[in-house]
Amino acid sequence: MHELSIAQALVEQVARIAGEQHAEYATHIRIRIGPLSGVEAELLASAFPLAAAGSLAEHARLDILQAPVRVRCQTCGAESDATANRLLCGACGDWHTQVISGDELILESVELEMREANESV
Amino acid sequence: MKVCDTCGCNLTPGNRKFAYKPVEPGATTVSVLQNLLKKNDDQAAHNRAHFDARGILAVNLMSSPGSGKTALLEATIRALKSEFGIAVIEGDLETENDAERIRAQGVPAHQIVTGTACHLDAHLVHDALHHMNLDGIDILFIENVGNLVCPASFDLGQHANVTLLSVTEGDDKPAKYPVMFRAADVVLITKTDLLPYLDDFDPVRSEMHVRHLANSAPVMRLSARKDAGMEAWFDWLRQQLAAQRARVNSGTTRRPAIQAEGARMHSSNI
User: Average pLDDT, whole number, for chain B?
Assistant: First the structure.
């Protein structure tokens, strides 16, 4: 259950970015994860409110984009879908492949409510 | 945040739509595109630089609880401590037992007690390093918390990952825990002296499951207790230390990245 650690890292990162941008709070967080990152999207989604409580990400919406597992074959060059425990080439069946999607654990973007904008309204 | 995180140079046609999503007045969207574990990764890079500056090879041992990590280390230290300076960082939820077993072999060991945490992270390892004297150390083993899931996601600053699979477990463990076995630089099938009593564990099948993860890491069979198959493991360690010394001399390092080239491809596939 390391998803709580990941959620805490996410909240910390969002808070730092919000601080640097002089934002009041975060409204929307978008992350992208793949099955080979070792992080379970549902567990992360349920850990997020615990990690975010009391922070400026407390009321942010968390969107988790799930990356598909895709491989590129080093033998025949084909790109194909794969599953987490069978990273074989869909064209020739070889196991000498490279994962080109599916192991991401990325904070893509943060939407912030700006302090200055609020004051001018 | 570094300049590149905001200037847009890390945007690609594939991910631009996430970065420049139209937002309501008063709001702003910041494109980040950073690894979620950036803070851990930065600390890990610092640890790795620390090891490299001292010419130390750092090896991370991962497996289920009870697959023989500490027994492997005891036998390895007995055989190699006259050849190399060895130190060990032990990670467990509770007790100092494993560190005491290592110290009994005559080498320094520091125990990290994680409490409830299911994995080591780069900060815990960094704190441990401040309690250790690394003078004269060639190889630092980090025995991670026994767990086939969480430790695979946290870089500690090591140069190589060793994953153990004991024959009393299922031979399909690599298929069940792909993230862990994909990260392995070497897979050790341990307790092979018990194979005659276990008719359902097939080492060939284990190796096939590792290959299905597109991992070409060597798969070795050994028994630390019966001193069988250990020489291949010792040779692997000697090769790793030689490779580390060559990297140090050429000013390079090695993160046990999983398919580094694949990671670079991601920038155009996000």
Answer: 88
